[in-house]
Structure formats: C-alpha cells, structure tokens
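Contributing: when you submit paired examples, paste them exactly as shown. First protein:
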Amino acid sequence: MAWLHTWSGLLLGWLLVAIFITGTSAYFRDEISFWMAPELHHSVASEAAPRLAWEQLNATAPDARDWLIALPHERHPAVELRWRPDTPDAQENRRRRGERAEMDATTGELLEPRASRGGGFLYRFHFELYGVPRIWARWLVCVATMFMLVAIVSGVITHKKIFKDFFTFRPGKGQRSWLDAHNATAVLALPFHFMITYSGLLIFMVMLMPWGMNVAYEDGWRGFFNEVFPREEQAANAGAPAPLVDDIQPLVARTEAAFGQPARYIEVEWPNRDNALIRITTAKEAAITDRRRGGNPSLSFEGTSGRLLKTDPGAGADDGFAARTYNLFVNLHLARFADPATRWLFFLFGVVGSAMACTGMLLWVSKRTQQLRGKTPGFNLRLVNGLNMASITGLLAAMAVYFAANRLLPAALETRESWEIRAFLLAWLATLIHALWRPHRRGWLEQLAALAALWLAVPVINLATTDSHLFSAIAWRHGALAAFDLVCLGMAAGAGYAFWRVAGHKPARKPARAARARRAAAGESS
C-alpha cells in the first residue's frame, strides 16, 4: 500500500496539482470573470432592469428567433442579453448561442466589455485542459482523478497513526517536516478530499460507464437524457407580425409574487409575432439535491396579451433516490448550492487539498535527496524536482500573468481572449524551462521571488488601469472586486514568506556528524 500510495500520487501528481489549483479557483469563477470585465463594474442592479432590457432588445433585435434576458444578481450586477437571429443557420443548429451583449442595469446603455474567457478558462482547464481534444482531455483528467482516489484510500491504510500525526508538526526537520505537513493537510479535510475526487468521477459516469444506458435505450445515453430531461419544443415557424406587450414589468412582478423569489431569466420565443411566448423564471432556495440544470419555478405568458398560460412550480421534488443521490454529489463538487460563506469554506478546503498534493511530491524529492548523502542528484531526481517547481510555483505564476494580461493587453486587440490564454501558457512554459535548467534550491528561490512580485503586481496594475481598485468605492460596493485584490496580496505575502523560509533554511546535520564536529573542535581548542 505504501508503494501504491507513493506512485499513484507521483505519476500524475503534476497534473493533479493543476486540476486542484484551477478547480479551487473555479469556486469563484463568476467573481473572477466579473473582475476581468472592468467595463461592467459601474453597473448596479435596479428594479428598472427588466423594462430597460425589454426596450433594448426591441430596438436591437426585434425580429430575432428568441430572446434571453439574464437579470442582474449578487455575483453579476449587469444584465446579459442574448438573441438568436431568425436565419437558416440558427434554425439548423439549436445549440447556437447567437448574439450576446451586456447592458448597464441602471441606465440601459449597452456596454462593451473587453474580450476575455475570465474565470471560465480556469474552470474549463480544470477538467478539459487546453489545446487537447475535449474527449481525450476528459479521459486524461478522469484517469488522474482515479489515481488520486487510489492515493487517498491507500494513504489512509498506510498511515496507521495518521490522526495522531495530525496533531504533530516538527518544523525545520527536513523530510520529517514535509511528512508532517502532508499528514496534516490530508487529515484536515479528508472527507472533502474523498468527496471531491469521487464526485468528480461521478460527473463523468456517462462517459466512463455508458453500457447500461446503451443497452436499455435504443439511442443509448442520448435516449436516456431525452427521456429524463425532455426539451420543450419551440414553435417551428414564426407567426404573423404582432407587437409584444408594451411593459414586461407587471409580468415580472406577478412571477416574483407567485413564487416569493426574484426573477432571474426572461425568455421569449418568436418575439413580435402572434405566437410569441414569454417565460419568466425565478430563483429559488438552493437545495443540495437540486438538479444540476433547470428546475426553477416559472410562469409562461402569451406574448401579445400577457395572458397566463402555464405555471411550472419547478422540477426535482419528485426525483427518485438515485437521482437525488447523484445530484447531491454533483452539487457538492460544484458548490452550486453554496452561499458566500460555504463557498469560502470550500475554497479553503481546495487550498488544503492543493497543499496536500504539493507536499506529497516535495516529500518524495526530500526523501531521495537525503538518501544521496551529499552526492550529486541524478537526472531523474532533477527532473522530478524541476517538474515539481513548474507545477507549483510555475502554475501560480502563470495565473498571475493571466490576470495581469487582462489589464495590460489593449481592449481592442483582435482575438484578445486568446492572447490572455497565450500569456498564461507562455509564462507557464517559461517557468518549466527555468525549473529544468535550475532544478535546485536557487531555482526555488528565484521562482518564489518572481511569484511574490507577480501577485503583488496584479493589484498595482489594477490600481493604475481602472477605477475599481482596492481604494475605490466601486470595489467595496461590489465586495468581490476588493476581495480579489486582497487575495492577490495574500498570495504575494505567502510567496514572500516561503521565499524567506527557504532562503534562511540550513540543512540539519546528522547527530553523528555533529558529534564528530564537536569533538574535532574540542581537540583543536586543547
């Protein structure tokens, strides 16, 4: 079991560190995306937002096939507008998202945020990597996740005194200190580590084990999902031209009163036609066993008269035990049910999980370095140490570069979002080259110093380029903006502390060697 724990944790450990770190950031991907769109920071949610969005879409896309208005909420205070043109291409491809725009929730002005993948890039990288065919990337991540699950189970079996060791930490003891840190971070959030790993595999169960669905349904797993999550078919053809209701506000108020929750989405099928349909969906009290998609209460109205057609109380309450169990694990993994305090708790658990993976890999190097007894490390050990450096300090440095590039690249740059990602990848590649060139203590010191400087630079660059920085009222009105800068400063402080500890560390001499040194010194003095 010790052998299994060691090698299952090491072979794909570098990928697991990247999965853990980017996955941890994904708990705040909406906040990261909002920070990376400073053009939206002046928007403030208002009661007039539905009416303003209604007027804006009537002026911008009156003959579209459908509209979608995403109303502002605590994690995104601007209004998101989507519409699908009534074109043959849009009719043939129902998954096509069509056009998209952001609107100020107070003034109704269309905003032009800079092109950026925002927190969505880090979220997608967490389970799809980048530049790799999607299906192969997901299989690779699932294999790495299975290795992680094996490492967790074998680690619990191997460390018979793991809970006792949790309360023991001996700093400055080299390999012993790394083992103590690894044990402590493993036990501190052990239920979280098991849950996040197992649920990650469960999310991809259709890809990993589709055989039952393929046998039971003629269309395989697609047939299963078409039965469990049937789509409401949209009217195939546009009706005759006819104006929509003048004011959407009364319908929004009626929906909110019916369910006691704020409206979140307004959908319109065939706007400005006599067969137009308006569907207003509200938020609902988050439950840990909710379906991953859909299921929120809604009212449907006739588009031209505003007459109520249908009341949908929401789905999910009648789900069976198996479905609710699946929803439980998926929602725990994605933290979709979480309020801000719970999201921060999950974020801290993710940090602990990242530290567990990092200390495990550093422990492997420390153990084999001590076995050298002063000899020069071989190629394999230098390679592992370099990969450790690139996967830990290198990835964190690349993330800081990604955020800095968001502020420094020209807003009008063509394919700007791709250049942000290129900056991330090029910075990561640079740290890998540096780590393989200097895979020793000096390399760690140089990367830690660069890491501290880069994370410190992010809020400084934000201060110089926007008016929603740490010292502005806008940042504190949207607390996520201020929190982002504070986390950057915390990252810089953590990297600086690590630099100070590594720079001041002196390898402990073994007792026998220390005794010989004392006897030699005593002989010389006599």
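Second protein:
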Amino acid sequence: MTAASETRRLLRVGETPRSGPVDADSLERAIEGAVVVETDFPAALDRVTNGDVDGAVVDHRESGFDGIAFLRAVRQDRPSFPVVLVPATDDGNVARRAVEENVTAYVPASGDDTLELVAQKVKQHVGARSSERGRVRMPISDRTTEEEQRLKERAMDEAPVGMTIADATLPDEPLIYVNDAFERITGYSKQETVGVNCRFLQGPDTEIEKTHEIRDALDAGESVSVEMRNYHKDGSEFWNELKITPIRDDEGEITNFVAFQQDVTERKEAELQLERERERLQRLLDRINGLIGDVTEIVVTADSTDEVYARSAERIEADEAISRAWIGEYDPGARVVRTRAGGDGEIDLTADDAGPLAAAIDEQSLVRLDDAPADPVGCRDEETGVVIPLTYRRTTYGVLAVYSRAQPFDEEETTVLQALGRSIGAAVNDLLSKQTVTTDTVIEIGVELHDETPLTRLARALGERAVHENTLIRHDGDLLLLFEVDGETDAVVDAAESIPEVIGVTVLADEDDPMVEVAVEQPSFVGTLSEFGAQITTVEFDANAVELRFGVATEQNGRAIVDELEDSYETVELVAYHESDQPAQTRQGFRAAVEDELTARQLTALQKAYVSGFFEWPRRSDGDQLAASMDVVPSTFYQHLRAAEKKLLTAFFEGDA
C-alpha cells in the first residue's frame, strides 16, 4: 500500500474486543483497514474526540460494557461519527435505546454471519482516510509586506474550499472577491459573481428558514454556519456548508463579510439516507416488538401444541408486512411435513420439489424461497418468502413459512423470524415434555454410558465393600445413592469422600445391616434428560459403565436425548427402545401429582425412610439416624414423614393428591 493510498482506521471497543464473534483481528482483515482496541471507556472516548479514528464498533452487555452510554457520550461532541453497535443479547429494548441515541448501524451478535454484517456496515458508513493526513504545514518566514500580501492572496486563491468576500458598506452587500474553488464548486466565473449578492446560488428548494437564519445573524453582526440547498450554474442542486464571519475595522464597524463554501452533498445525502434508515428501523422495531410480545404470550399460555401452532400462525399472518404464513409439523420417521396451521396437506421431503423445506430442516437454518410454481412451499405471484425451522437445541419439531408481497425480508426481519422459530420450538419441546407424565403411551429407552464418570469412579473406590441398592434424584438434580455395607462403615465413608464429586456421606444404619447414603453432585445426564422432559426410572452403575432407563413422550425427544448424550460421553450404547401402553393414570403422572403436593422436606423424609429400610421389619434404620441425616431433630423428622404419608394415602385412596 503506497503512502498516498487510503485506508480506514477503526476503533474496536468493549470488555473483550479481541474475542467473540467480532474480534479485532478478524475485523481488521474483513474491512482491509486498521483496527485499534480499547477496553477503557475514557480512553476509547478520547480516541474519538481527538480524531484518531474514523469510526467505532462497540460492544454492549447489560452486565458489562455499556455500549449505549458510550454512544451517548460520543454523540455529545461528534453527532455524525459512525458507530456500529453490537449487543450480546437483545429483547427489543436495546435496539430502541440505540435508535434514540442515533446509532449509525445496529448488528445483534446472534449468528455466524455477525462479523460479515459488521464489516458490511463499516464499509458502508465509515469513510477512508488518506495516510497523507497529519502532514504539518511549515510556518510563514519573515517576509516583506508585499511578499506576505501575495502569499495570502495565493493561499486564498488556491484554498480547497470556496471563499468569498462581500462589501458590507455597499447596498445589497455585493461580492468583491471569489476564489478558484468557488468557481469549481458553483460553476460561476469571477466575472459573473463579482459585484452581485451571493443569493444567486439559491433556488426553488432552498430552505427559507436557513436564509432567515443567515440574515438575522448578519444583521446582529454575528458569525453563522448553516447547511442549505444551493444550485450550480447548470441548475443542478448541491448541499452547501456555508460559514460567514464579519470583518471589522479599527473602530469596530463591520466592513466586510468573509464566507466559506464547501460542497457536502455526498455526506449530507449519506446522513439523510441514515436518517431515513433510522426511521425505517424505528417503524420496524415498533412492528417487531408487537409481534414478539404477542407470540411470546401465545407460547407461554398455550396448553397444547395445536394451540401454539394455530395461534402463532394466525398472529404472524396478521402482521402488516406479511401476506400469509403457515406452520407444519415434522415427522422424522416418515420424512414428511404435515401442515398444522394455515396450510393443507402433507409434504414429502424426499420429493425433488421439496428442496428448500428439506434444507431448512436438515440444516436448521432459515432458507429463502423462490417463485417455483411446482414447489409446494414456493412463492406465489409477486411474493417473496422464507421458511424457518422450529427448533429446540438440535431437535426440529416443524417449520414456519412466511410470505410477503411488499419487499424481500431484510436481515433484521429474518433475525426476528428465526428467534420466533426458536421460541415456538422451545414451547413445543416444553409441552411434549409435559406429556411424558400424562400420556397413555410412553417410549421407554435404555442406554449404557461407557465412560469415566463420578459414578464409575465411586463404584471402583467402594469395590465389594458396598452394594448399590437404590438411587434418588433430588429436586436440584443431585443424586442420593443408597449402599448396603459389608463390614465397617468407616472404610466406605472414607472411600466415598475421596471422590471429588461426592458432596456428602451419611451413615443411615450402623448395626446389623449397615447402610450409607452418598450424595453426588448433578451428573450431566440428569440435566439433559430433564431438559427434554424425560422421566428417569432407574440409574444403575458399576466400575465400567452407567445404565440409564427413562421414558419420553415422543420419538423426537428420545432421539434428541440420545444425540445429546453422544455429544457428552465417549461411548453411548442403546440397550432398550420400545413403546409402553400405560393406564389412564400413568405411574409417572401419579408420582408427579403427589410430588406437587409434598414440600421438599416431606418428600426427602419419605424418600429416605423408604430407601433406608425404615418401613421394613425389623427396621434397617431408625428415625434418629434419618433425622440426623436431614439435620433436624427426630420430632421434626416424624412430623414431615407423617404429613407425607397422609398426602400419599389420600392420593391413593381418594384419587386426588
């Protein structure tokens, strides 16, 4: 790059500007310019106010670097300085605040293309600077009066901005001097301009209020600066940045007005375009916020997947920019999409004309639709459209197809539509998860995790000194493991406590049939299964593997759980998979209903009493030991246990927990 070549000098501001989706090094390559990094708010602001940089890319985090505050500070001194804001998350409020502070461009950090979009905005709004900037002009040496006068005249003639001087002592203040730049800017020659008032540059669209502002300032003997529409000699319009200053004689009387003119049409049109873009973005935000709020309320309050599909499609279709919308449910086994709201029929994804729909599902990404009459999801006459997968993590439950006759969906709209797709997918996952405890048919799955886990390490440490008898999963996800001890309990306690993930060991019985309870912090598989609404039935383990048995409501959730486990563990072996018909009141449903009625203490007391052999005869543990394991006095333990027993028996005999 030569010394006179042009480049951009960009400021990258945030807590960690060298990492994340818009890291400084990647941004520098993308814009083919220079990027300087600041993490300190005052230092970054000094860079802007001192003119060290041509634009800024600024992070915003609600609990970190406040990009909105930085934007507000910049706007106090540099109202037109280009600022691209990149928020980590956004619920619509951040965007509104950014628009109110006159953000130049707004790019949420919500996808793999964030860096590309930021670079695009930088190239669009941040101008290049010449490396010749910064050259310092040498001072004028001692000269004769005549030489100094000639130098000043030459400097005025060759100045890069238009210069005029008017005689304030003559009627109508005629021009007595114009420089060469004024001729180039306006197209008028010196012969045509000297001797007349400079209002000849005005025309039909010149702002009358700007002319009044100029006249009022000159009448008051004050300087004035305005940007106004003026006209070239050929009649074409341009934006003139005009600055006028009065010149006074030794007595303080105004003798002349010196004016500077600069053609700022390119910058002004860019500002007007930016203002139009801000207004468009504000209208879009108002529209989108209403859409997001309504769909969010739908997915939160709906009682079934049918209701989610129907009400969501109806609300999306009611948007002023959308001509129609429909939602389809994906059946991965049959490889088809069955329309559930706003459409009619079944689409075979293996057909040649179902390519966009299949791509959206397989790639879990938005796909733009084209005008293909044979395509079952294609656009109709004068329509544009997109299809969005309804996903939760790696599971796709369906698709949302949206069409418009106004104009193609822009990046802000597609970002919102993708977020709506994820919201609907999460709602469907939640509703299907709840079905596991209410449905008549449950898919029962068994897997073995052949991997090094806290449970396999615990089994190896205990060896043959203890036999695993039962496993309980607490509300917080931690495991309570009950072991029957063969020998002294002290050795078992020491071995268990040597495992880092063990968070507590309690001796429940220490005489004829010793028993030890070991609490283990939540394994990753518990979170995975609970996230997809699976009901864990058994957890068995030895020194080599962990075997899980669980039930789910749908094949999709079962497949998603296995996929998630395969990501977390080296070897996952499927050992059982079948549907099980349940009675009208499922075992899981009964248990869930009872647990809803029990307090956490009541449930813990009941579980501990059951697994420790308290209800057997002779008892394998007594109330004093169980009370100590719960860190309560025996009377309190029995109070919790009796209350739990009453609620359990009420549910059993009266059918209403």
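If you have annotations for the second protein, write them as plain sentences, like these:
The longest helix spans residues 265-301.
DSSP finds 21 helices and 26 strands in the chain.
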